[in-house]
Amino acid sequence: MPRPVIFDLFHTLIHGADEERDRVVGEMAVMVGVAPAELVAAYHATWRDRLVQWDVEETVRILAGRLGGTPTNKQVTRAGEHRRALGRRVLDSVSTATLDVLDALRGDGHPLALISNATSDTAEAWPQSPLAHRFDVAVFSCDVRLSKPDPGHTRGTRQRETSAGSDQ
Q1: What's the CA gap between 20 and 120, in Å, rounded?
Q2: pLDDT at residue 16 in the model
Q3: How far is CA 112 from CA 11, 74, 77, 131, in A?
Q4: Model confidence over 61-113: pLDDT tens digits?
């Protein structure tokens, strides 16, 4: 039996969208009434919390509050949707060459797994992405509340792979 192949998502299968993410976060800042540069800096400073603790709206509300903002629910929702749109765009930007490699590996019988440090907007967009159906299992840090290199993140993949196999 062919061996499983485990991938990371960002900077492996898709680009990291670092510059676009900073632009989007700056636009979100305007939506919630805080300084764009300060929200971008707060995003960078709280990366681990965003990966394992906070969903999109929590992130917006917590960071805006730390920066002296008091956004309304409507503002938070609008900023969250803006961030989710980025997550969808980034996942949809996967190259044809990458998809061809994944298809070839699957065609050769290799089970494919994904382990990614990712915020909730990425995990939410995953099922509709062109990548999702190519993987047997995907584990996101926001879902298991662990980030790489924590070994529990890898155990989460093994547990999901085992339960996915038992469903078939």
Answers
A1: 17
A2: 83
A3: 17, 39, 34, 11
A4: 999 999 999 999 999 999 999 999 999 999 999 999 999 999 999 999 999 99
Angstrom distance (rounded) from CA 52 to CA 47: 9
CATH architecture, range 5-14+95-166: 3-Layer(aba) Sandwich (3.40)
Whole-prediction pTM value? 0.83
- Where are the alpha helices (H) located in the chain, listed in sequence order? 18-32, 36-45, 47-52, 56-66, 73-92, 96-107, 120-125, 141-144, 151-166
Rounded Cα distance, 88 and 90, in Å: 6
List C-alpha distances in Å: 14 to 72, 89, 119. Answer: 34, 11, 15
Report which residue type is found at 4. P
150 vs 152: CA distance, rounded Å: 5
Which is it for the CA torsion 75, 81, 82, 83, positive or negative?
positive
What ranges do the domains of the chain cover? 5-14+95-166, 18-91
CA 70/CA 78 separation, integer angstroms: 14
